[in-house]
Records
---
Amino acid sequence: MTTLSTMLTKRLEDPRLFRQYAYIDGKWTHGNGGREEAVYDPATDEVIGHIPLLEAEQITAAVDAAEAAFVHWRALRADERCERLLAWYDLIQANREDLATIMTLEQGKPMPDARGEVEYGASFVRWFAEEGKRTYGETIPSHIPNASLGTIKEPVGIAAMITPWNFPLAMITRKAAAALAAGCPVIIKPANETPFSALALAELAERAGIPEGIFNVVLGDPAEVSKILCSEPRIRALSFTGSTRVGRLLIEQSANTVKRLSLELGGNAPFIVGPDMDPKEAAYAAVSAKFQTAGQDCLAANRILVHESIHDEFVEQFTERMSALTVGNGLHGEVDLGPLIHRQAVEKAASIVDDAISKGATMVVGDQSQAPGDNFFMPVLLTNVTPQMKVWREENFAPVAGITAYSTDDEVIEMANDTEYGLAAYIYTHDIRRIWKLMRALEYGMVSVNSVKMTGPPVPFGGVKQSGLGREGGATGIDEYLETKYYCLGALGSVSGS
Ligand SMILES: NC(=O)c1ccc[n+]([C@@H]2O[C@H](COP(=O)([O-])OP(=O)(O)OC[C@H]3O[C@@H](n4cnc5c(N)ncnc54)[C@H](O)[C@@H]3O)[C@@H](O)[C@H]2O)c1
Ligand SMILES: N[C@@H](CC=O)C(=O)O
């Protein structure tokens, strides 16, 4: 049978990067129960391949393997772990084109964006390879006579990672590289929609000399697997990127084992445009901040709040710019937006648009008859959006932009903060006083001023409120996988001092 998987392996320079197994203890593994799930190309709905759905005892076997391997991995010097991670980084870079092809096939994003994600994902591996060499403890001036006090940093233990489908590679490396550099083994459960990027990373980790049992990829029914990972006491840290709904569930399920939790959850970013802004410059930036990854991005500018004095011109410029976006199969030529991940995502987007129109919003752009396939959703612009609408309250995770006019800074602060989310916010103005006032008042973990691009390895990425707990990347990202051990060396004699 000629399936897309045959086509895919022919398309790859290195077909061994396309694996249809789980990866446990350095071995490619079938499901013991023979259960499988198909993975689809969202652009065509063709089957790309299949993944095994593992049984409970296989997830436990991954934990056993990680436990056994931990002893040796943590005993390596930091510079030895750095060497392996840099080898992994080099291999990811060397196989960028294949990794991008796999990603576009399973996720749908245009090839240039997929190449960009590979680059982005690799950059976290290099960053944490270096950061692993700087996990300093401290010396504490002693208050106890004849004693020396201090701290050392130690790996927290086995770390489990549950990751989403919108960034199938970078959401793994941002977690796994930090944990590996800290000396922790990892067990990754990727989204079932996009498992093949994770499996290709496992193949490259093996080639880079990351030992058996240190990098594991488990696959299965998400609720079943996550329950086991959460309730397993030997897993000491759980890092999750995904929806706030599932994040809440994982907090509950991890309570009995009191795990370290890092949660990168949903966002509902406001994009605030001040009265002093050039409407064209701001509108072009807003289009870019809204429609990347077809709007399926936690940083997507969902609620665009424009000062009333420039609102109409802004809408005109925004409309012109977004109307030039092309929608199509990410594998073919230059397209700006690929498909949504599946049919349910299209249905959700349509229902959010319907809800807004029924409550008084105006649809300026958004003719769905132009969609090139069942899983595609043409970019929509809604104006007169209000807080009663789903498009304001929910993370739409689709190419649906909502614009609202405001009149004062205080009003826009209230509007921007009127959400359970607190991941990222954008401000466009050149007035330094306004920038400072808004930046301080916005209840968000990240605020980007006059820049669409805000992320990268040096950045402490993360949200407040119900957008999550902890920070990934930056100088503190590795701390999510480290414990601080305090020591008191007593009875040292007068030489100890402080
Ligand atoms: N804050 C960030 O850094 C960031 C980055 C990317 C995506 N996200 C968020 O991710 C969401 C989109 O991704 P998604 O649709 O894959 O999210 P999701 O929460 O549905 O799924 C995320 C992961 O959880 C698993 N999962 C699904 N249902 C589960 C259940 N009942 N029990 C346990 N695990 C389950 C999935 O298989 C997947 O691996 C959006 O909310 C987006 O904002 C956040
Ligand atoms: N674009 C984000 C991922 C959110 O979906 C990132 O850069 O991490």
Note: Residues 73 and 80 are 10 Å apart (CA to CA).
---
Amino acid sequence: MRSAKDFFRPLAVGAPTPVREIPFRPSRMIHFFDPSNPKMAAKVPDLAPKVDVLLGNLEDAVQASNKEAARSGLVDIGKATDFGDTQLWTRINSLDSPWALDDLLTLVPAIGGKLDVIMVPKVEGAEDIHYVDRLLAQLEAKAGIERPILVHAILETATGVANVEEISGASPRMQGLSLGPADLAASRRMKTTRVGGGHPGYLVRSDPIGDDLTSGRTTYQQDLWHYTVARMVDACVANGILPYYGPFGDIRDVVACEDQFRNAYLLGCVGAWSLHPAQIPIARKVFSPDPAEVRWARRVIAEMGDGTGAVMIDGKMQDDASVKQCRVVAELADALAERDPELAKAYAASEEDA
Ligand SMILES: CC(C)(COP(=O)(O)OP(=O)(O)OC[C@H]1O[C@@H](n2cnc3c(N)ncnc32)[C@H](O)[C@@H]1OP(=O)(O)O)[C@@H](O)C(=O)NCCC(=O)NCCSC(=O)C[C@H](O)C(=O)O
Ligand SMILES: [Mg+2]
């Protein structure tokens, strides 16, 4: 382990100075596209202003025979596109694959100045982050890149979950974590065959009434991901980085997708992946605080004055701890409104209606 004094030193001579804090940039949806797919690639300029993050995916879902095409397609897109204030991320191949090294050796010199974040899949421990950290520093120094590229790890192996705290704090580059429910399910030997979401077999059942075990017993489907998301959120917050729900594979089921995203939002996540254009508005809706909630939060903050003591508002007790929660909601709303003029209008209109 590096000493605390060395933690923020560049890992290569000439590399940019590491950031001391991860800037909060709206990232409600990390929109995945396959840069080797001409139809998807053609949609990037139109999608850029509609999403918070565009992610050129090089890993799973890109055919092995298309890996080089995806990498060079991303370079072309990165060079040709004006992303405005939309972030450009990539997901490189896993570190044990035949492609990961060339992903980094190609992307950093070619479009490193435009890449905000590199997502690393199947991270198992701090050593994976340390490897990427040093290599990025060397490549940034060589390419003369002036701001450090940040790193995002996917939590998608049982070992990764067991080491989530050390992964989160492994480098000043660590920007956040995403849940990777499909690989994680396989790694844990869970008996599901889905990409995220619930399962009808994972439930609790109300007690029987009398001796009849079969009728009148309501069942409640449970969230398979609750434990991991909660653990991920704690590890992220403890290390000043951002937690995200990952993919929801049933593209057609927009209702359950919204539920899964909302569970993650309520537990502390700041965004989720969108795999298809249909999931972009779902993430935007869920990860933007509801205008009525924002109005309420602002009212509590105003009525609580200096934020101490206890007051009663509409029959509910408010104190130092509830005003802190309200500040989380109000500050998120302010940050998102700066980027999203429609949302800014909705928040302003809700204040006027009050
Ligand atoms: C899921 C898809 C394969 C569906 O594609 P398709 O069958 O083409 O859908 P549609 O016909 O409904 O598409 C309509 C048009 O929209 C374009 N399209 C589709 N998806 C995207 C996209 N992501 N970005 C931009 N444009 C998109 C289609 O090309 C159609 O265009 P047109 O014909 O001109 O109208 C597909 O959506 C897809 O491949 N999505 C990305 C999948 C992906 O990235 N998967 C990896 C992330 S999940 C994962 O890795 C698991 C995780 O790691 C874990 O372990 O949990
Ligand atoms: Mg995966």
Note: The mean pLDDT is 97.
